[in-house]
Design goal:
- The structure is a single chain.
- The protein is mostly helical.
- It folds into three domains: about 15-65, no CATH class; about 75-210, Up-down Bundle (Four Helix Bundle (Hemerythrin (Met), subunit A)); about 295-370, Orthogonal Bundle (Arc Repressor Mutant, subunit A), CATH 1.10.10.10.
- The protein has 18 helices and two strands.
- It has helices at about 15-25, 30-40, 45-60, 75-85, 90, 105-115, 120-130, 135-145, 145-155, 165-180, 190-210, 215-235, 240-250, 255-260, 295-310, 315-325, 335-345, 345-360, and strands spanning about 30, 60-65.
- It has a two-stranded parallel sheet.
- The N and C termini lie far apart (about 90 Å).
C-alpha cells in the first residue's frame, strides 16, 4: 500500500487570503474546508491563521461545519475520557488532559513534553484505526497533540480564564478534532486540530467571562473596539468620541454605540458604596421602577379623587361604563365588546354612551385640574 506523504505548503499570499475573505463576506459564511485548504500547514504560520479567523469573527461571518461525528460534552466525550483514564497509563502517571490543576501543571507540562510527535504517515495510520473504533488510536492522537493545545492556549492568557482553564477547554477542542478528523481530505491532523482547539477556547472565553453571554463574533468585535479605543486615547490624550472610533474601525457610528453598550461589565448590586459607610450598597441607590414611590402614590390618589368628582354628576350606567372602559376601579381597561356583554347591549351602543358621557364631563369645572396628569 502506498504511503501518504505530506509536503509543506507555502504560506498563503495576502491576495489569496483577501480573495477568500471577500468570497466569504459576499455569501455571509465560509466553510470549514475552505479555511483548512487555505492554511494546510497552519502550525508553521499560526499568527496569519489566527489573524484571518479574527477577521472573519469581526465581520460576523459564520463558519459552516459538518454535523457528523462532532464530539459533544456527553457520551462520546466520556468514552474518550474513559479510554484516557483506563489501563496502565494511570499507573505510570502519564499525562491526563483533565488533570491540569495548579499543583500538577509543571508535572503535566513535563510529561506531555516527553510524548513523541507523530509523522504524517503515523497520523493516517492512526486515523484508519480510529475508523475501526479503536480507542487506543484516539488516545495516541490526543496525547501526541497536547503540546499543541498548550501553545495555542498561551496566546489567550491575560483574559478572563487562567492558563489552566484555557488548556482544559483547548483539550475539549482537541477531542472534537480527533472525532471529526478525516485523513482522506489530505489535511495534517495538527492543522485540523488547531481549528477546533482555538474555537473551543474562544467560545469558552465568550461563555464564561461574562454573566450575560455575548456571541463569539461580538467578543472579537469588542476586543477590536477596545484596542482601537486604547490607541486613540494614547494618540489624542483623551477619551475618543464614538464618531472617531467608528472612523478608525470603518464602522457606522450606531454600530460603535451598540458595541459600547454591550461591552460594559456587569456590577453586583451588593457592591459597597463609599468608604466610610460599609453598610451601603449599590442596591440602596437604584430606583425600583416596579414599586410605586410615595409621591407617585399620592399623585395617583389625588387623580382618582378628581376623576370621581368629575363623573359623579353622570348617571350610574354612564359612570360604570367609563370606569370599565378606562380601568378607574381595578386598573384594567375593558373593550367595548366586554362592556357591552356586561350591560347586554351592542358594542356600538356602548360607544355611543361613552361618547355622550365624555362630552358631558368636558363641561365640568374640575376637568381643568386633570390637565396636569
Amino acid at each position: 500500500m502506498a504511503r501518504v506523504a505530506y509536503t509543506k505548503a507555502p504560506s498563503p499570499s495576502d491576495q489569496a487570503i483577501d480573495q477568500l475573505f471577500n468570497k466569504a463576506r459576499s455569501r455571509g459564511f465560509i466553510t470549514e474546508n475552505e479555511i483548512l485548504y487555505a492554511f494546510p500547514d497552519v502550525e508553521d504560520y499560526l499568527d496569519a491563521y489566527e489573524a484571518f479567523i479574527d477577521r472573519l469573527d469581526a465581520a460576523g461571518i459564520s463558519t459552516v461545519e459538518q454535523k457528523e461525528g462532532i464530539l459533544g460534552r456527553g457520551k462520546e466525550r466520556q468514552e474518550i475520557l474513559q479510554g484516557l483514564h483506563s489501563g496502565e497509563d494511570a499507573k505510570r502517571g502519564k499525562a491526563d488532559p483533565f488533570d491540569v490543576t495548579a499543583e500538577s501543571i509543571q508535572v503535566y507540562l513535563r510529561e506531555i513534553g516527553k510524548i513523541p510527535l507523530l509523522t504524517g504517515e503515523q497520523e493516517v495510520a492512526l486515523a484508519k484505526r480510529k475508523e475501526r473504533n479503536e480507542k487506543e488510536a484516539e488516545k495516541i492522537l490526543i496525547e501526541a497533540n497536547l503540546r499543541l493545545v498548550v501553545s495555542i492556549a498561551k496566546k489567550f492568557t491575560g483574559k478572563s480564564l487562567s492558563l489552566l482553564d484555557l488548556i482544559q477547554e483547548g483539550n475539549i477542542g482537541l477531542f472534537r478534532a480527533v472525532k471529526k478528523f478525516e485523513y482522506r481530505k489530505g489535511f495534517k491532523f495538527s492543522t485540523y486540530a488547531t481549528w477546533w482547539i482555538r474555537q473551543a477556547i474562544t467560545r469558552a472565553l465568550a461563555d464564561q467571562s461574562r454573566t450575560i453571554r455575548i456571541p463569539v463574533h461580538m467578543v472579537e468585535t469588542i476586543n477590536k473596539f477596545q484596542q482601537v479605543e486604547r490607541e486613540l486615547i494614547q494618540e489624542l490624550g483623551r477619551e475618543p468620541l464614538p464618531e472617531e472610533v467608528a472612523a478608525e474601525m470603518g464602522q457606522e457610528v450606531d454600530k460603535v454605540r451598540h458595541i459600547i453598550k454591550i461591552s460594559q461589565d456587569t456590577v453586583s448590586l451588593e457592591t459597597s458604596v463609599g468608604e466610610d459607610d460599609e453598610d451601603s450598597t449599590l442596591e440602596d441607590f437604584i430606583e425600583d421602577v416596579k414599586n410605586v414611590t410615595p409621591d407617585r402614590a399620592a399623585g395617583l390618589q389625588l387623580l382618582r379623587d378628581y376623576v370621581k368628582e368629575v363623573i359623579k354628576d353622570l348617571n350610574p350606567r354612564e359612570q360604570k361604563i367609563l370606569e370599565m372602559r378606562f380601568g378607574l376601579t381595578d386598573g384594567v381597561g375593558h373593550t367595548l365588546e366586554e362592556v357591552g356583554k356586561e350591560f347586554d347591549v351592542t358594542r356600538e351602543r356602548i360607544r355611543q354612551i361613552e361618547a355622550k358621557a365624555l362630552e358631558k364631563i368636558q363641561q365640568h369645572p374640575t376637568i381643568r385640574k386633570l390637565a396636569d396628569y
